[in-house]
Amino acid sequence: MKTAEVLKEHAFLERMVGHWTVAASDMTGDKPWQESVRSLQGIWFVAEGAGEMTDGKQATTILTLGYDSSKSKYVGSWIGSMMDYMWTYEGEIEPSGNVLSLYTRGPAFEGDGLADYREQIAFLDDNARTFTSSVREADGTWKQFMEVKYTRKG
């Protein structure tokens, strides 16, 4: 097995490293969460978030992201203490260079079975980014149902 090397594709993920305040009214209410993102030698990136849900329960999340050169795709996973499903991702950077689109399949929030989802990490500038989640509709379009705002701390 060849040793992984830091590639130009990792630069997008490197922008996430740091400490962030997280706000999403439907998830955090008026109590912002905190997130810390670290790099594993520039190859993998781990984002750990924690805060209080709108129902008053504490929650923790972990997002992992990297670039799989054999697939020419960004890959990752997401787990949260509020659910027992591990989300796995594959995706790519949009032509603007500021948006990473990640695609996954997971439990349908409406009805039974599985649904297709698109999560997008978009940098507004070096100190602000968003994370949006959309579900694929029957006609193939994406319907956004969540937006999380991140502001870099200090």
Helix and strand topology:
Elements: H1 10-14, E1 18-23, H2 25-28, E2 33-40, E3 44-52, E4 58-68, E5 73-80, E6 87-93, E7 99-107, E8 114-125, E9 128-136, E10 142-152
Antiparallel strand pairs: 1-2, 1-10, 2-3, 3-4, 4-5, 5-6, 6-7, 7-8, 8-9, 9-10
Count of DSSP helices?
2
**Order of strands across the main sheet:** 1-2-3-4-5-6-7-8-9-10
Order of helices and strands: HEHEEEEEEEEE
Share of helix, binned? under 10%
The major beta sheet can be summarized as: 10 strands, antiparallel, barrel
Question: What's the CATH architecture?
Answer: Beta Barrel
Residue fraction in strands: over 45%
Distance between the termini: 40 Å
Protein name: DUF1579 domain-containing protein
Organism: Rhizobium viscosum (Arthrobacter viscosus)
Pfam family, one: DUF1579
Short characterization:
With 154 residues, the chain is mainly beta.
Structural summary, described in words:
There is one protein chain. The chain has helices at 10-14, 25-28, and strands spanning 18-23, 33-40, 44-52, 58-68, 73-80, 87-93, 99-107, 114-125, 128-136, 142-152. It is mainly beta and 154 residues long. A hairpin with a 3-residue loop joins strand 2 (33-40) and strand 3 (44-52). The mean pLDDT is 94. It comes from Rhizobium viscosum. This is DUF1579 domain-containing protein. InterPro entries: DUF1579 (IPR011473).
Kindly list the characteristics that best describe this protein.
mainly beta; Lipocalin; 154 residues; ten-stranded antiparallel barrel; globular
